[in-house]
Structure formats: structure tokens, C-alpha cells
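Summary for the lay section of the report: proteins are chains of building blocks that fold into shapes. Here we show the chain for ABC transporter ATPase and then a coded description of the shape we predicted for it.
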Amino acid sequence: MLRTRGVDVVRDGRYLLRGIDLTIRPGEHWALLGPNGAGKSTLLALLGAVSHPTRGEVDVLGRRLGRVDVRELRAHLGHVDPRHPLRSPLSVREVVLTGHAGTIEPDLYRKPAPETVDRAELLIATLGMTALADAPWTTLSQGERGRALIARALMPSPRLLLLDEPATGLDLTARELLLDSLDLLRHQHPELASVLVTHHLEELPESTTHALLLRGGERVAAGPVERVMTTELISETFGHPIRITRHEGRWTARAAARRAPER
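The coded shape description reads as follows.
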């Protein structure tokens, strides 16, 4: 599904990524974790065929970046960005339908086919948004927008879903609704692969299968979550003692307690 070999990204003489090797297979759901400046967004841009590496190889859905029309390739990717630039008061249904053509605004000269509308309605229902299908975008909460954008990203039936900090700015209820939706989606589409970028372990769905830890543009660890999401490796990644616990499939992270100074 995705493969990088020896990938470097250099900007103005500075390494944003160095020597990244990664393989993602169908049905795997990866968490991409690391502190600010770790290179998470840079790597996601490579995986989404938005940018190219300085050195190394990036294969997306079996196509080598630099040897393929990235516009055609992006049609098979679903990219969820909570900073979606829409400003007009489109309804949720209209926003989801724009995912079919990968546009921001609807095509005023082309009416969507009935089967396209049916798929939009199905995805809206899957993401728990049926009651808000006619609600204007400008009135939605951040969490409601996040679920609408996931439905939009799924319109072209992508093989790969990329989620760039989808829980940013969400309150507790909105975050849990979003994560429940992702778990349901992954269950319903077992061949779908996904990569979710976050700073916070609490924002990872139960269905997460693998993790890649980045620090300073370099890989700290990568592999199944049971092996990678450990107190030792997370502490190394974030450069601070952090205790990791997992309960009913979800993670929590707490900084190691500091001892009060003796008097």
C-alpha cells in the first residue's frame, strides 16, 4: 500500500526527515506520533503524494513518486485535514459530495449521479451525521466538521485514508464520537489502510494496529502497537519520562511524577 526506502527531506540545508523506511499494508491502521517538529506532517505529505523526497524512494499504491501523475494517484487517496478551507455555507451533504471530484466547491454545471448521491447518504449515515445532512457547514461544531470531512474523503472509495490530527480542537464528547466513527469505518472496510497523525495517545482509536514514532525527523521505532507503544519508547520519542497505560484498547499517557524536594 505504502513504502518508503531511505527517505530524506531537506529544506534550506536542514533535515526534516532522515533515512525513513516504512511499509504499510492493506488493513493496517498506523498512528504517526512525535513532538512538534518531529517530521509528522512532512511524512504525511509524502504519503499523500503532495510533495516529493529529496532522496530515497516513495511508493504510494504501487506507484513511484516522480514517475507517476500525482493528480491521478491522489484520486485513490482520502485526505482528512481539519483545516479544510471551505468558507461558504454548503450543507453537510454538499460538502460530502465534493469529495467525489476532489473539489472544495460543488460543480454548478454538473449534477451528481443518483448512485453518487446514494453513496454520500450512506457515508453520512456511517459517520452518524444523518440528522445534520442539511445543516450548513458554517453552523457545525469542529467535531461535526471532522466527521463530515471523513465522509467526504471516503467518497471516491480510496484504498488509503490519511488523517492529519483529526481530533484537533475537539471536546471530549466530540473526540469520542469521532474515534467511534473511525473504529466502525475500519470494521466495515477491512481492506482500507489508514495513517493518523497526532501528538496525543488519547486520540488513537482502539482499531490502531501499528505505530511509527518520530523524533527530530528520524525514526525511533515502528511496528505493531504492542511492541512500539511502550513507556520506554514513548519517553524516548518525546524526550521526557512518560508512563503509558492501556485499558480496553485505549491509551493514556502521564508524565512521571516529580518528587517533592526534601526539607
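Put simply, here is one thing we learned. The chain has a mean pLDDT of 89.
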